[in-house]
């Protein structure tokens, strides 16, 4: 028998069987141990979520002892670091909503057109070449985009509209829109390519052109996937920090006019952290309250997007 | 058929063809907007920053005089922070991915972990910064150090590494697993000796993309309160005396490339904005090169592995 145990087995058969059992037991123990380690690694991601929630809630609770939730939600001023302190988160939400809206006005039309073009019109080769290059747009560090918005796009816009201030939400939003194009286009394109070929063939057989097929057959069939792509775009735009912090100014300003400077939730956090704030001051607590608000927003969008993607996967 | 409807039909077809052609052009233009911005961004930075991109720029510390300022402390800082990030995120992320793909039973706990990973991928980076500020800087007392920054970015890219690992593992056909089991391999032997070599390339691709994202992140590093004016290097990790390795650098204050660029961008003097452009070129080249490497790897894997 070509077995490494042969020699031992010939000399003392009984201990060898015991030895094998011991070895198998050792192997099983090692397997269990490794599985336990791997499970701990996977579970650590849940721990991170709990840590985020615990820190955000724990650090912002003291603020809500001094500021009522009603004031927090309805006050129209956000001046937590001044002597006359006001804590109206709506001011920051207005800034976030404005920059997000500008970004979406760029990203959704362009992203959708690109997705239709790549999914229904472009050749296989063009698609495979262009997609990775387009995705590089999403890989550019956001501080570089911030530089671009502040020092290139704003001066360019000022040529057409000389009264535009140096810091404004318009240029920040526009550049942010370009940044999220690949997120919107690649998820929409995946959704459209998941639509089965026979639907298209049916449409072509009826004499429809490619554009008609794309708009009237493929897009409705991929609707929830498209919605998920847009929601991903919104979620990115809401959380984006550096472009706004660099190009939109960091002064809280209750306005929805994109031509004015304003602070968003995230750029306010950056502004406070750039200064030296003592650990137990009220200003320090406000950044966690702002972070909690931001987290709630993105959580809602993420869940909505997840639900939509799940639905769209179930159709076919 | 009477001739009139035929003519109408011809007109209709001609009009649809025209609309179709117009859309093809619109589609190409939309694509070009994206590509031109990328190209314009790069050229603009390169042209503006070119005069400052000298050897001294890489070997000088930041300075109050724009012409003498450089990015020595920034790129060394970025390198060390990335080292901490890679050493944390890769083992943790790959292990979690392996568990979810190869071990996890189908139950509510697994489903919860999966939803949780997906949700973490959508959490804005500044929230990770706040987590790090509350947890690493104050609770654990790591302070505003390389260790804090590296761990923060590791948490940030963890979902990317997990998702990439799972996709790479999923691409390996089930027959390989069955063959390994048939020869008496245990689950870990199957994973480590048979699945791992096939999926290593895919995992590496995800890791590189994750690290390229981490190297460009600014907001979470600002949040933990990283100083922007650092005119010294961290303690060297290799020493002349026994035991030759020192971990003092983990606790040192630091600056990183994107912070240095942000600092220069927010100065009003034009001379500093030249420095910002030059730092931007270096940053952009680093991230784009890492992404290009990842794309090339993915392409090569698709080419060489045929099941």
Structure, described:
The complex is a heterodimer of chains A (316) and B (307). Chain A has 316 residues and is an all-alpha fold. Chain A folds into 2 domains: 6-66; 74-315, Orthogonal Bundle (MetI-like fold). Chain A has helices at 6-11, 13-66, 69-74, 89-121, 124-137, 142-160, 169-193, 197-205, 210-221, 223-239, 242-247, 265-274, 282-315. In chain A, helix 4 crosses helix 7, helix 10 runs antiparallel to helix 13 (282-315) and helix 12 runs antiparallel to helix 13. Chain A starts with 5 loop residues before the first helix and ends with a helix. Chain B has 11 helices and no strands. Chain B has helices at residues 3-49, 55-59, 72-103, 108-121, 125-139, 146-170, 174-182, 187-216, 219-223, 257-265, 270-304. Chains A and B meet through helix 2, helix 4, helix 5, helix 6 and helix 7 of A and helix 1, helix 3, helix 4, helix 5 and helix 6 of B.
In short:
Chain A is mainly alpha-helical.
Helix/sheet category of chain A:
mainly alpha
Bulk shape of chain B: flat
Estimated radius of gyration of chain A: 28 Å
Number of strands of chain A: 0
Through-space gap between termini of chain A: 55 Å
Global structural class of chain B: mainly alpha
- Shape summary of chain A: flat
Number of structurally distinct domains of chain A: 2
Number of domains of chain B: 2
């Amino acid at each position: 028998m070509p077995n490494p145990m042969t020699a031992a087995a010939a000399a003392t058969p009984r201990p060898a069987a015991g030895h094998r059992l011991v070895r198998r037991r050792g192997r099983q123990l090692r397997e269990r141990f490794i599985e336990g380690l791997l499970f701990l690694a996977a579970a650590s991601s849940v721990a991170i979520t709990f840590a985020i929630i615990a820190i955000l809630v724990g650090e912002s609770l003291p603020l809500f002892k001094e500021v009522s939730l009603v004031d927090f939600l309805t006050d129209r001023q956000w001046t937590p670091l001044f002597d006359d302190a006001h804590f109206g988160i709506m001011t920051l939400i207005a800034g976030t909503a404005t920059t997000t809206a500008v970004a979406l006005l760029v990203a959704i039309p362009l992203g959708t057109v690109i997705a239709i073009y790549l999914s229904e019109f472009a050749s296989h080769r063009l698609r495979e070449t262009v997609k990775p290059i387009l995705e590089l747009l999403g890989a550019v560090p956001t501080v570089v985009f911030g530089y671009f918005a502040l020092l290139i796009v704003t001066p360019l816009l000022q040529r057409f509209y000389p009264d535009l201030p140096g810091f404004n939400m318009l240029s920040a939003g526009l550049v942010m829109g370009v940044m999220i194009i690949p997120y919107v286009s690649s998820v929409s394109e995946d959704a459209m390519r998941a639509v089965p070929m026979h639907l298209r063939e049916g449409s072509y057989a009826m004499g429809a052109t490619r554009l008609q097929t794309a708009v009237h057959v493929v897009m409705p069939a991929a609707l929830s996937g498209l919605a998920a792509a847009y929601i991903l775009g919104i979620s990115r735009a809401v959380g984006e920090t550096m472009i706004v912090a660099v190009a939109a100014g960091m002064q809280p300003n209750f306005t929805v006019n994109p031509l004015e400077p304003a602070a968003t939730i995230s750029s306010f956090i950056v502004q406070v952290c750039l200064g030296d704030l003592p650990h137990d001051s009220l200003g320090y607590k406000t950044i966690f309250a702002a972070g909690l608000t931001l987290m709630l927003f993105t959580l809602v969008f993420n869940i909505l997007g997840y639900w939509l993607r799940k639905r769209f996967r179930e159709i076919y | 058929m009477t001739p009139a409807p035929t003519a109408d039909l011809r007109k209709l077809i001609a009009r649809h063809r025209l609309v179709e052609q117009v859309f093809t052009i619109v589609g190409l233009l939309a694509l070009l907007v994206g590509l031109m911005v990328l190209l314009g961004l790069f050229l603009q930075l390169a042209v503006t920053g070119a005069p400052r991109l000298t050897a001294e720029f890489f070997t000088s510390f930041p300075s109050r005089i724009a012409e003498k300022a450089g990015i020595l402390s920034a790129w060394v800082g970025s390198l060390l922070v990335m080292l901490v990030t890679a050493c944390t995120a890769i083992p943790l992320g790959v292990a979690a991915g392996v568990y979810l793909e190869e071990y996890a039973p189908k139950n509510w706990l697994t489903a919860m972990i999966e939803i949780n990973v997906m949700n973490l991928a959508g959490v804005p980076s500044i929230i990770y910064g706040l987590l790090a500020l509350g947890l690493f800087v104050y609770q654990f007392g790591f302070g505003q150090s390389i260790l804090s920054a590296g761990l923060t970015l590791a948490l940030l890219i963890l979902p990317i590494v997990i998702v990439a690992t799972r996709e790479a593992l999923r691409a390996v056909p089930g027959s390989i697993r069955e063959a390994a089991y048939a020869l008496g391999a245990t689950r870990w032997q199957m994973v480590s000796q048979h699945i791992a070599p096939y999926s290593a390339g895919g995992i590496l691709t995800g890791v590189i993309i994750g690290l390229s994202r981490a190297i460009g992140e600014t907001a979470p590093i600002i949040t933990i309160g990283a100083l922007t004016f650092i005119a010294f290097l961290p303690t060297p990790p290799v020493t002349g005396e026994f035991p030759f390795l020192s971990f003092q650098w983990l606790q040192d204050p630091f600056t990183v490339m994107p912070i240095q660029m942000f600092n220069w961008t927010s100065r009003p003097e034009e001379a500093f904005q030249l420095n910002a452009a030059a730092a931007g070129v270096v940053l952009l080249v680093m991230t784009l090169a890492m992404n290009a490497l990842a794309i090339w790897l993915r392409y090569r894997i698709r080419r060489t592995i045929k099941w």
